[in-house]
Amino acid sequence: MKPNHRDCDVIVIGAGAAGLAAAGRLALAGCSVLVLEARSRAGGRCWTTRMAGMDIPVELGAEFLHGEAKTTYSLLRQARIPAVTAVRVQRRLVDVDYYMTLGGSAYARLASSEDDTFADVFGEMAEKFGPLTDVLADISERASLSSNRDVLRLYDRWVRTGSRRDGSLLVERGLLPTPGGSLRPQ
Predict the structure, then answer these.
(1) Distance between CA atoms of residues 162 and 164, nearest Å
(2) Which terminus of the chain is less hemmed in, N or C, by CB atoms within 10 Å?
(3) Nearest partner of 19 among 47, 42, 41, judged by Cα
(4) What 3-state DSSP class applies to 138?
(5) Where are the domains of the chain?
(6) Each residue of 36-81: pLDDT tens digit?
(7) 168 — phi, psi (to 5°)?
(8) What number of other Cβ atoms are within 10 A of residue 94's Cβ?
(9) How crowded is residue 75: how many other Cβ atoms within 10 Å of its Cβ?
(10) Ordered DSSP codes for 81-135
(11) DSSP assignment, residue 69?
(12) Separation between Cα atoms, residue 17 and residue 23, nearest integer Å
């Protein structure tokens, strides 16, 4: 049976985190609630999916819980959903190339989804995401390398990530990064 707005006390617009939380509280207070969502899925900006070739779920939306987030952790426990704690101890930072690949894959996934309204747009974004982020990152990095301190930050990031782009920018400045994290003048 299709829900009727006349059969409920409250209509909540949006099945994102806030809408679902509001609907839950209203239901606990004894109200009958109808949640309306324009998308074909609940979650709003939170969107976890699986992608071919990746062993772990991929977050296409909000992904980090900041601070204590007691309410969020309580809701996760109630729903029996595990939260993964990100630990940065002795962890190599992720290179920007990882994000470029992930972004292109995310757009490719959207292009092949059931809702094909924007399939062509997402397909083009998937195809052009890498080159676009290359250009934007290059502009940003070239504009920000105006002092020796900026070059040292670039070197530090290269040591931590092994980024090919950072290595190329160091070479352009006459510094040859070597495996093991040292620099030699060219």
Answers:
(1) 6
(2) N
(3) 42
(4) helix
(5) 1-44, 48-86, 94-144, 145-186
(6) 988 888 888 888 777 777 777 777 777 666 677 788 788 778 888 7
(7) -65, -40
(8) 12
(9) 15
(10) -PPPPP--TT-PPPPHHHHHHHHHHHHHHHHTSS--TTHHHHHHHHHHHHHHHHH
(11) -
(12) 10
